[in-house]
Design a protein that fits this description.
Helix content: over 70%
Largest sheet: none
Structural class: mainly alpha
Number of strands: 0
Shape: elongated
Order of helices and strands: HHHH
Number of helices: 4
Length: 78
């Protein structure tokens, strides 16, 4: 598993630690979940989503890609 270093304001760091404790999670779990909810995925994962969408919906590659982009934008907007 990769490790990163990020810089947060003291207030943001404290809020993140408090939220993690309240939810019984680690800060790493909180960051992972946030990235997932924001729609951050690898190109490979995105390609797998498009392939599944095409298979399940009998769409062309172009239609499936458009549907995947629409879904990602909807998730990021909410």
């Amino acid at each position: 598993m990769a490790r990163i270093t990020i810089t947060l304001s003291d207030d943001r760091h404290r809020a993140l630690k408090e939220a993690a404790v309240r939810q019984g999670k680690t800060i790493g779990n909180m960051v992972e979940e946030s990235l997932e909810l924001y729609g951050v995925r690898s190109v490979e994962t995105a390609a797998q989503i498009v392939a599944r969408a095409r298979q399940n919906a009998r769409m062309s590659e172009e239609q499936a890609l458009e549907a995947a982009l629409d879904e990602t934008q909807a998730l990021r907007s909410s």
